[in-house]
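Below is how a single chain appears once it has passed through the pipeline. First comes the sequence as given, then the structure the pipeline wrote out for it. We keep one example in the README because the format questions we get most often are answered faster by looking than by reading.
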Amino acid sequence: MIELKLTIQKFEGKGGWSYVDVPGITSDRNTHFGWVTVSGSIDGYPLEKVKLMPKGDGLLFLPIKKEIRKKIKKEQGDEVHIKLYLDNEEVNNPEILYNILLDISDKAAKNFKNLHRSRQRDIIQRIFDNRNEDVQTQRINELIVELESKNV
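Resulting structure:
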């Protein structure tokens, strides 16, 4: 997961897209045009399965639609806070964690299911960003305590 403050830019010319450059993620040679699918948020606005596109200078950029800019009240030159993670369904699928929680605590599973999908994915990313199974287990146990007390 990357978390950055970036400045909105705009491509030159009529109809030029607004975007932010996204350092730290490289294009995927196995996808159409090297696009990379990510999810996350921009100033708290959830992003689901958006495409980062290569600019040609080695950087990927995240296009920011007018609808999103309007909701977050930002335009060219404004700074935005982004959280992005690669949208790898196997790891980021909330159903996987939901089923783990369901085996342990119905209340925790229910409260997890009621969270916004982007919040669910933030939690999943935090748990699985460390490949050590002991750390993952500890984080899941901490999550269960939080979910059972509704402190998430």
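The two ends are 19 Å apart (CA to CA).

See the next section for the split statistics.
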